[in-house]
Amino acid sequence: MAQHKTDRLFLQLHELYKKGLACLLQSSSIRSYIIDVLYNPRLSICTDESMIRSEVDYDADLVIESSYVLNTAGYLYQIMKAIHITEQFMDSPMTHHQVVAMQKFTAFVLQQISFRLQNMYTNTCVNKQTYISDKISCHMLELAAKFGCVSDMLYIAMYYYKTLRYREALSVIEMTKVKLAQPYLMYMGDVDREKYTEAVGGQSWSTKIRQAIAEDITLYNTVCYISELIPEQSFLQTGLHIPVFVLLHFLEFLCYRHIDTTLSQAALDELQVLVHHDRGLYVPDLLRDISWEILGICQQIIGNLQAALYSYQQSLTQHPYNRIQTATQKRIQDIVQSTQHQYVEDLPLD
């Protein structure tokens, strides 16, 4: 029976083939265009191949569009509401764009829950509960990294740093460094089109986003990720948006402070070169406020107060995208007061 249907279909297709162009006249959607050309031989239909979207352009647009799914402040009730909406989506057919958005949102939810679990059990005296929640958090962050992009690996590094596992954090940072250094990386829509196509062209979106796409990091003010940034987070309504390359060097500096001061200084030097000399390639202009701020925090930590003061002042001159001016002014005030106090102590006694 199946063979008979196949044979019949083949005969129908063969008949259409024999008719040639005339078979297209049977299509109501394109019949009118063909008739116009047949009646007017001088009329031509332009088939401009440059209008066909390339895979690279399509992927770049997909990254931008999927980012809108995370326009939430990260409050628990918002997350629960979004999860409920996601459940409804699962029961209906989804477009490719919707699947990508759901994948990105899943990574976001896993990251949020992981840090919230850690915050819940930080001060508990029950070791078993702490151990179990830690295992769950680590597993969810690893799972989120499989759903998310290259940058999402830094959430694992932040978690390890927060839980005092500096060597584990540095191991993740090194892996992230390797991926961010690939010549086919897509960041802020910028990419070497040829190398990107050679590396991940034609592959699944999961492979592309995990291997070749990086985005900036958002730290929502409802969760403590890095204690050194608490002042900046405390004055915000939503979250901090940090360039991925700035956060990478920041975490590297913080971790090496507990292991190797020489390597910690090297990480700070790299961060300083990046913030001082980048022209929008790795530090977007809109995020230069938090980039100068983070550089100042690092300089203040090692006691270089003059350099820190300069960095904080530079932060105030940038576009206030992250709205951290209050925190920056408070840090400047602390340095000035500390310097004045030290000056008084150094005065000779009569």
Give the terminus-to-terminus CA distance.
Answer: 113 Å
- Rounded average pLDDT: 86
**Structure annotation, total helices:** 16
Query: Rg, please?
Result: 28 Å
- Structural class, from helix and strand content? mainly alpha
Q: Please provide the ordered H/E string of secondary-structure elements.
A: HHHHHHHHEHHEEHEHHHHH
Largest β sheet strand count, sense and barrel closure: 2 strands, parallel
Strand order of the largest sheet: 1-2
The low-pLDDT segments are none
Strand content: under 5%
Helix proportion of residues, in percent?
A: 55-70%
Count of extended strands: 4
Principal-axis shape equals elongated
Structure write-up:
It is a single chain. With 350 residues, the protein is mainly alpha-helical. It is built from 16 helices and 4 strands. The strands form 2 sheets. A two-stranded parallel ribbon has the order 1-2. α6 (127-147) runs antiparallel to α7 and α8 runs antiparallel to α12 (244-256). The longest helix has 26 residues, at 96-121.
Short description:
The chain has 350 residues and is mostly helical.
Task: Pick out its properties.
elongated, about 65% helix, mainly alpha, two-stranded parallel sheet
Itemize the secondary structure elements and their pairings:
Layout: H1 2-19, H2 28-39, H3 55-67, H4 76-90, H5 96-121, H6 127-147, H7 153-162, H8 166-180, E1 186-187, H9 193-200, H10 205-212, E2 213-214, E3 217-220, H11 230-234, E4 239-242, H12 244-256, H13 261-277, H14 288-301, H15 305-317, H16 325-346
Parallel strand pairs: 1-2
Antiparallel strand pairs: 3-4
Helix pairs in contact: 3-5, 5-6, 6-7, 7-8, 7-12, 8-12, 12-13, 12-14, 13-14, 14-15, 15-16
